Prior knowledge:
Oligomer: homodimer
Strand order of the largest sheet of chain A: 2-1-3-4-5-11
Number of domains of chain A: 3
Largest interface: A-B, 57 and 57 residues
CATH class of the largest domain in chain A: Alpha Beta
CATH architecture of the largest domain in chain A: 3-Layer(aba) Sandwich
Number of helices of chain A: 13
Mean pLDDT of chain A: 91
CATH superfamily of the largest domain in chain A: Response regulator
Helix content of chain A: 40-55%
Amino acid sequence: xxxxxxxxxxxxxxxxxxxxxxxxxxxxxxxxxxxxxxxxxxxxxxxxxxxxxxxxxxxxxxxxxxxxxxxxxxxxxxxxxxxxxxxxxxxxxxxxxxxxxxxxxxxxxxxxxxxxxxxxxxxxxxxxxxxxxxxxxxxxxxxxxxxxxxxxxxxxxxxxxxxxxxxxxxxxxxxxxxxxxxxxxxxxxxxxxxxxxxxxxxxxxxxxxxxxxxxxxxxxxxxxxxxxxxxxxxxxxxxxxxxxxxxxxxxxxxxxxxxxxxxxxxxxxxxxxxxxxxxxxxxxxxxxxxxxxxxxxxxxxxxxxxxxxxxxxxxxxxxxxxxxxxxxxxxxxxxxxxxxxxxxxxx
Amino acid sequence: xxxxxxxxxxxxxxxxxxxxxxxxxxxxxxxxxxxxxxxxxxxxxxxxxxxxxxxxxxxxxxxxxxxxxxxxxxxxxxxxxxxxxxxxxxxxxxxxxxxxxxxxxxxxxxxxxxxxxxxxxxxxxxxxxxxxxxxxxxxxxxxxxxxxxxxxxxxxxxxxxxxxxxxxxxxxxxxxxxxxxxxxxxxxxxxxxxxxxxxxxxxxxxxxxxxxxxxxxxxxxxxxxxxxxxxxxxxxxxxxxxxxxxxxxxxxxxxxxxxxxxxxxxxxxxxxxxxxxxxxxxxxxxxxxxxxxxxxxxxxxxxxxxxxxxxxxxxxxxxxxxxxxxxxxxxxxxxxxxxxxxxxxxx
DNA sequence: ATGAAAGCGCTAACAA
DNA sequence: TTGTTAGCGCTTTCAT
Lengths: 347, 347
């Protein structure tokens, strides 16, 4: 009796071998495109695979070889910049047997560790860690356990490749643009971070440094004005509230948020205060997330080329899976400025 | 010699058993919280687990039991509504051993099939299919292969549970709101779909039906005005262009987009045309994605309670994993209207 | 309550 | 080129 709920036993490589009249080894070789198979055997096995609808069990493979699965750990599914990275990675893998599986750390260091461990437990062939907040030591450990590429992070790394954007230069582009428009009082909203080691590793710190350097280069050293909050929408809102609470003469004429998601909070606060952009105040962000281009937003920002970052990181990861002892490389992309309507000369 | 790249052999349950001086069977039982273990044995095994840093291999488990992994297939990482669903699911699983792994189908039926198969190959204990576009037959097949819950889809299903929003009612809320403000010419932008079976299953079709019904109920049958495009930002843009190309007398005073992501495109087109919202035209969406609340956007929309949907779907999935023959249930949530500044009485 | 042994599906080492 | 065999780490009978 075979009712609608009866489980169908999965077709295994033994079934394929029997159906094709060859050994399981032979079938395995053909399936994996390994060397040492005759054309005749190939065609017979492939026919059996097709007829029986055979699909290899990743779990069984994991116990012996690879799983053809790459794990991506993201801090936050909601930040559309990360979606660009994922797209680039997925596109690069389109014609391979590899499958991308993603998990979110919800911007939490503990969760990030948990999730990464979970991926290792699940025999991922490689890991893509996007903007991680784990300590360098922890990253080292991950990288020694499984091939790893770190994306959007600036620490040195011997065991993993790094792909990142030149955040220092990107911040400079924004300051140059605003200064060129005639702004002097340009405030910067950055992520508050006290740990000195981490400070040098996170992209936000690089952006803040780039801002400082560029302000000096433009003769605006006196005007350097940094508000430290958190790198999310609420942080942008609160930071802006703080700026607006000052007497009018101390308010900036332009705000450079360290990330578009932060700029969203800036816009929330400005809208609430009844201020117009760019009429009353100019706003710039960083990342060029999808919503930056939205008609009513039209945010001037920095394009990090997330797509290219994702594709490059994936290429490096596959290389590293092939040859684990390959020396680690660090790829840095140059960002470009995207000028939109949220910035204009000051009143 | 142990250089920095030497692979450390993973601790196995055999190591744990030996270290604790018990059988592997016993160790396994303790690790799994299975019945039939003395308190003394428990403590010894758990101590060994702790000291050795043992973590079970999901791959090895998969060959015998479960993997404690749930797969989520989403059409599009970029739609923040899906992030709400993920959050709800992740929160529900927070104190369990289960891990959520996500993959995107990029709004493509072929990819959706590929990705879902890939998850089955990887021995997921259960599948959460969000707003799938695969045929019902295909979904049935998936559900018979692995415990499955379908989210945001309206077809009947014998083998899988369904959790969805009452899209028909939600659309009614929007029409009632706009009609209450005094609008008569209310246009609706929907997803173009010709397949009659699929038409009844997709949420967008329910919303279009709800729109039609509500327009009639408000005595506006003559004003029913539907533009068919695609359910993404570009679709919203193109649909709005079509509406704006009409002579002024034929233009709507309000546009109800079938999804917030579509409303984004509507706003793009209106901004480009130099029209103000809600001054010249009111706009409403559906989903209440994060960016709908953004200051410069402030979109009136329908809250689908993605968080609750995700949590409920996950609960049902765990139930189904425990008891596969449990009859399928269908849960429908009532949406609520979120009124913001993008809607106002017509001129 | 505890343990011995078989076996999940696959691949790699080895033999023919 | 092809096949035989062992074993990856775990859970599950089935004895004891």
